[in-house]
Design a protein that fits this description.
Pfam families: POP1_N. By secondary structure, the chain is an alpha+beta fold. Among the domains are: about 50 residues, no CATH class; about 120 residues. Helix content is about 30%, strand content about 25%. The chain contains 11 helices and 11 strands. The strands form 3 sheets. Strands 5-6-7-4-10-9-8 form a 7-stranded antiparallel sheet. The protein has a two-stranded antiparallel ribbon with strand order 1-2. A two-stranded antiparallel ribbon has the order 3-11. It is globular, with a radius of gyration of 25 Å. About 10% of the residues have low confidence.
Length: about 290
């Protein structure tokens, strides 16, 4: 009996013993996908995780406060250089439809008494970003929904326009519900059906298959590139993965799409922000066919 007990208590040997095996790309991606099932990571998550205390808010894993005393460095960057912030956790809603119909209904949830509106000429052309406060339809100055920022896509010669609205994750559900109500978007246009999430046992079996391919794995990377898992983002922190992400109105033709975690957003602060952008982004050469 003691011998049988010792056999049952014996720990199974780890399938990835050395650090080199754990740091392989396929194993890292599989581990990152497993750890993102409950809280979504931003594109800059690993950089922040090494330097910040992470918190879990609004369905995301975000950097809260730095682990080192870098407040003076951040202040110096804001005043003299450039400081970058990752705002990709902000939610983005895309409205597509005729410009007159969009402006007509959007005027019901904002007021000219508070400042700029969606009809402002500088913002309507798509050159500048605007910010305003949204209210429930025809309820101003009561029942405020919250502040948002927006930007129009420049006109392309068509009647249809595109409008992107960014808001805080805590405000997304209320604003989305109000937009769907004023535009009468009730029928889902597309329903996202995610791939079944592999269990830990299946992931371990996949790792064993990859490790058993051979010792010289570098030669097989190029040919077996398709076998390497890709980082998956199932849904986002504010939407269930099995819910629809696009709605259409049969009467007005307006389409509301949830672009959260599809459009990354960064904020540059400091006098050298423009210089950093000009050095980073290069204009593409247009080739006429």
């Amino acid at each position: 009996k003691q011998a049988e007990k010792a056999v049952h208590q014996k720990k199974e040997q780890s399938k990835t013993k050395c650090r080199k095996a754990r740091r392989r790309h396929i194993n890292l991606v599989a581990e990152f996908n497993r750890r993102q099932r409950k809280n979504i990571w931003l594109e800059t998550h690993i950089w922040h995780a090494k330097r910040f205390h992470m918190v879990k808010k609004w369905g995301y894993c975000l950097g809260d406060s730095p682990t080192e005393k870098c407040y003076r460095a951040c202040y110096r960057a804001m005043t003299n250089h450039c400081l970058l912030q990752d705002l990709s956790y902000y939610c983005c809603l895309e409205l597509t439809g005729k410009e007159n119909e969009l402006l007509k209904q959007l005027a019901r949830i904002c007021s000219i008494d508070t400042g700029l509106t969606f009809e402002e000429a500088c913002c309507l052309s798509g050159r500048f970003e605007g910010s305003l406060n949204l209210y429930q339809a025809d309820r101003y100055p009561e029942d405020m929904l919250g502040p948002v920022t927006f930007i129009w896509k420049p006109r392309g010669g068509s009647e249809n326009r595109q409008l992107w609205i960014w808001m805080h994750p805590a405000l997304k559900q209320d604003i989305l519900r109000e937009l769907k109500a004023i535009f009468q978007c009730t029928e889902p246009q597309d329903i996202y059906i995610p791939e079944p999430v592999t269990t830990s046992i299946q992931e371990e079996e996949q790792m064993d298959v990859v490790l058993s391919l051979g010792k010289k794995r570098k030669k097989e990377d190029k040919e077996g590139e398709r076998a390497v898992p890709v980082k998956k983002i199932i849904g986002d922190g504010t939407r269930d993965p099995f819910q629809s992400y696009s709605w259409i109105s049969q009467t007005t033709g307006i389409v509301i799409s949830d672009r959260t975690m599809e459009i990354l957003r960064y904020r540059l602060i400091g006098p050298l922000s423009h210089s950093v952008l000009t050095e980073t982004l290069k204009a593409a050469s247009l080739q006429r066919v």
